[in-house]
Every structure is written in C-alpha cells, then in structure tokens.
Design goal:
two-stranded antiparallel ribbon; 235 residues; elongated
Length: 235
Amino acid sequence: MTSERGIALIMVILLTAFLSALGMGLLLALFMDRLASGNMASSVAMLYAADAAIELAARDLSQEPDWDSVLSGARRSSFTDGLADGVRHIPGGGAIDLTALTNVLNCGRVTNCTTAQMNANSRERPWGANNPRWRLYAFGPMDQFTQFAQPVASYLAVWVADDGREEDGDPLADAVEEGDSGHGIVRVHAEAFGIAGSRRAIEAELVRACRGGGVGACLPGIRVQSWQELRQPIP
C-alpha cells in the first residue's frame, strides 16, 4: 500500500510539473506575440515618422527660390532645434550625434571627411567628384510640431544633397541649365530615431515643379520622383 501511495505521489508531481511547464510555455508564447506585435507597430510608426520628415522638408524646399543655398548648407528648414551638429537626445531615451551621422553619409566614417574621401568611388557613391555632399537641412524632436496629433517619440533628421547624376563637378550647386541632367532635382535622406536604438530611413528624389523656362517661372511645388525605404542607412 505504501509503495502504491508513493507511485501515486510521483505521478501527481510529474503531472503538476508538466501542467506548470505547459502553462509557462503558453504565457511565454502570449508575451512574445504581444512583444512582436508591439515592435511591428512601433516599426511602422517610425517609418511613417521618417516619411513625415520628408514631407516637412519638401514643404520648405518648395519655398526656396535657390536650391544652391540649400546644397551649400547656407539655408536650412524652418524645422531645426539649434546648430546642425553635435549630440541630440532622443525622446524616450538615447542620443545621436548629428555630426557623426552626417560624416557617415558623406564618406562612411564618423570622423570628418576629406575631399578625397567624399570623391572616392564606391557601390553607394559611384559618381566621383559628383558624389552627394549631404547637408543637414531639417532636424528636431517630432513632438516639436503641433500639427501632429499623436507624434511618435522620436528624433527626426533630414539631409539634402545634389543629384549624383549631374556631371558639372559641383555637388554644392544645382545644374544651371534647365535641360541639363539633374537640373531642379535634389536627393533627400530622412531618418527617424527612436528608443532602444530603433531607426528607420527613407531616401527620395524631389523635383521642383516648374511651368517653363525663365527667371521666376518655377511654381512653389515639389514632385516626388522616387521613394525607397532603406533597411540600413546607406551613405
């Protein structure tokens, strides 16, 4: 009788352990599913934030009478939070270095870029002396804009550069003649930086909407010629 009770006790213990493990497994699966859903929602929200940054930059670019001043870094968007360099804190935690991010775009390194490094041919920058010279144009916390009803806790940054297909050898100025390749076209690189190192990037080509040749003939408008999400930031 004692041995039977011992076997029954062991069976009860084993069954209890099995049910406990099964319950823990179900709880873990539920937690991971909710975590994955939350991460997906956050990722999508960050992508929308980066796209919103492009829209903000396009709005200001459409009002610029001369894109040369933008490409040279002399003029910036109305959306800024100080000088276009240094460390910024991300809403919700973390920080980014605007200077290092600009250098990475221009030559693939966090330190200051030389002219030779920016002119070097690579898979991402194959245009030599016409390689883009990225200039920080718009930057600041997303909640700085009151028009967003539910801003994502993120820091937005938008860089502008000349179209690399131009052949004038001057990446700090737009092509002069209307018929020249790349005239009235700029590249825009936007990133949204969130908590825990999350970030999403979009790159687009913007074309100035014009009604014909002649001084002052360009209407205040922008057309998006191309748009792509970058899974990894590309210089």
